[in-house]
């Protein structure tokens, strides 16, 4: 049976093909003879009770100079329920427009499409806060908008990471040590003077060994990780913040952490997830548009996208 997939993502003409996971998933869909469609979140809309997409059929090729071509002269309108699957791959920030998109995708799901990741779980599982569901695997953490509480946490632990709840790529992440004269202004900035929640976590020294990205696909833990190692003078391993990615086999401890979390992911319909693990601790659970797939596939003889699409095909044939 022929399948089709709509990939909802950022502009396709801006992707970096050598490391873009959404692009790699599109390549795998095409290899499996799925009809491939593309749109951006603002191209989804609701009319007469049906969720529709202004989209284009697209062909992709693994060529950094010529990686896509549209098969339609202009956008066409397709009922989202007619797609076999929809991949929601929009990068953060997780703002109200993103939430509105998940409502539309939840309706599309009810109308027949298999949506990855599950739209309700995208709303429920904030990438920072979702770690609180697994306290035995997380560092000491405080989430608060209260300046005095955040200051007390910093004084108690001495070396602390502060970050917003809606960021990505290491943006607006601060490391604060005892006596830092900027503590108050950092808290004011992150909380908008006490209006917004922010997260404080005890600093994990093992960041020097890398912020490990562990991919979990349909509950299956990928046996390799990408260690994002901070550049000199940095405490952030994020590749977007200048970190370097080093592929390596997963350790027994890392696998144990991932396998402890995996069943809850499957239960929530989170089929493609990236854990961020530093030392023995999970610091984030990335559910919106996890990355690092291409780096691992380029280093090792593994097809991570095939694991996902095999799971989709199994669900669609059930």
Automatic annotation (TrEMBL):
It is an enzyme of class 6 (ligase). One of its GO terms (cellular component) is cytoplasm. It catalyses: gamma-L-glutamyl-L-cysteine + glycine + ATP = glutathione + ADP + phosphate + H(+). Keywords: ATP-binding, Glutathione biosynthesis, Ligase, Magnesium, Manganese, Metal-binding, Nucleotide-binding. The keyword Nucleotide-binding applies. Pathway: Sulfur metabolism; glutathione biosynthesis; glutathione from L-cysteine and L-glutamate: step 2/2. GO terms for molecular function: ATP binding; glutathione synthase activity; metal ion binding. InterPro entries: ATP-grasp, ATP_grasp_subdomain_1, Glut_synth_pro, GSHS_ATP-bd, GSHS_N, PreATP-grasp_dom_sf. Its EC number is 6.3.2.3. PROSITE patterns: ATP_GRASP (PS50975). Its cofactor is Mg(2+); Mn(2+). HAMAP family: GSH_S. Belongs to the prokaryotic GSH synthase family. This is Glutathione synthetase. It comes from Kangiella spongicola.
